[in-house]
Amino acid sequence: MSRWTNERWLSTLHRVHPPVVNGKVERRRSAAYFHDGNIDAVIETLPSCVGSASKYPPTTIADHIRAKLAGSLGLQPNNDATREAARVLAAVEKQP
Question: Do the domain assignments include residue 29?
Answer without folding.
Answer: no
